[in-house]
Amino acid sequence: MKNVVIGQSGGPTSVINSSLAGVYAGAKAMGAGHVYGMIHGIEGFLQDRLVDLDRYLSDPMGIELLKRTPSAFLGTCRFKMGRIEGNEERYEKVFEIMEKHDIDTLFYAGGNDSMDTVKCLSDYAAVHGKLQQFIGVPKTIDNDLPVTDHCPGYGSAAKYIAASMKEIIRDNESFGADKPTVCIVEIMGRHAGWLTAAAALAKGDDCTGVDAIYLPEVIFDMDRFLARVEELAKTKRSIVIAVSEGVSLADGRFVCELGDASSYVDAFGHRLLSGTASVLCKLVGRKTGLKTRAIEFSTLQRAAAHMSSLTDINEAYMSGEAAAKAAAQGMTGMMITLNRISGEGEPYLCGCSAYDIHAIANVERHVPADWITKDGCGLNEKFTAYARPLIMGELAPVYVNGLPRHLVMKELYEF
Q: With CB atoms counted within 10 Å of each terminal CB, which end of the chain scores lower, N or C?
């Protein structure tokens, strides 16, 4: 292994930096010379913006701080390489920069769109006889990458969501009004409802749990939704509902489009979804006269490193190390997967392997239909058995002046 480079792409998570640390440590253990970081992903790499990670991670304390630092330490991007035909100059630029710095392996940490970048680059290399390797490191709080049992980033986001839902339920239940307050919590999830499903984990012997959970996997029926709220209002003083930002009607419209939805579209054609809870609260208030409150977790669910799952941190690091080992074995056009190797009722165990990127890129995995309750607005024990192990454990932040200390790269803010 010569020199290597790693980039981070797409929406950050609270553990994507643990994967970065794992790649760094793994590559060094495999004999890599320099481990470079792309500043702002492949977009920055095309501008030859690199940093030698020895500057920050050669000291073990740097790695420990990095594990506790949210967002993308290297900076991220939403940049589409595009079809090879017509973009040959762009692809050649990637290889030109790799050759300039004697880089033989490119690691890319990200979700569906980032794995498309890995696929395209490895395909170009194969067609044009290039010897460089390309390895994907999974990352997405959406948990929608196929093949892998789950994705680094999901467990921590699920932990934040479940804990926050418990706190919201406790707050909403504390009022003794004659009529309930309807609190609708909007959670990320465009087409897959894994994050919103995590609200089911709030239920326990000290918490009644949420009253309904609406996922994109189930067509949203406005009349049935209102009927459920009205029925709950007959017997409850508190109503808390979790809803995915991407729930849609039978005609295909997102519920958020019934309000003042943003028209912004990113480089991959994804519309910005926001305002679902607000739309539903206004509808409930108008139709029932009940007091409503809309809460949107937004960035908090992916940035709350102070509530990261230790299991998630460790698995993110493990997937980074596994990526370095895969590269040392000569693999390319692969993504690291997390594989649950424990059976039902056994202590949770997870390992890593590498899988063909062509079976992963641009494919979304949804919450299985048999994990959703028959009424379409809840999750059963199959989901909780799957998700509960992923939120276990904590890693305390390093506190300075009462606040968590983060590792910050100054090059990220230089132009």
A: C
- Grade residue 412 by pLDDT with cuts at 50, 70 and 90: confident
Q: How many domains does the chain have?
A: 2
User: What pLDDT shows up at residue 72?
Assistant: 96
Amino acid at position 103, single letter = I
Beta 403-404 vs 399-400: how paired, if at all? antiparallel
Residue 297 lies in a domain: yes
Which residue, among 122, 32, 120, 107, has the nearest Cα to 336 in the 3D structure?
107
Q: How far does CA 63 lie from the centroid of its chain? A: 21
Domain-located, residue 199: yes
- State how far the Cα of 170 lies from the Cα of 292, in Å rounded to an integer: 16
Q: How confident is the model at residue 67 (pLDDT cuts 50, 70, 90)?
A: very high
What's residue 118's pLDDT?
A: 97
C-alpha span between 315 and 155 (Å, rounded): 10
Q: Domain span at residue 345?
A: 3-143+305-362+393-413
Asked about 142 being catalytic, the answer comes back as yes
The CATH number that applies at residue 243 is 3.40.50.460
Average pLDDT over every residue of 263-271: 52
Which is the catalytic residue, given 113, 142, 144, 211?
A: 142
Which of 263, 286, 303 delimits the end of a domain?
303
Q: How confident is the model at residue 264 (pLDDT cuts 50, 70, 90)?
A: very low
In degrees and rounded to multiples of 5, residue 364 shows phi and psi of -105, 140
Tens of pLDDT along 107-125? 999 999 999 999 999 999 9
Cα first-last separation, the chain: 31
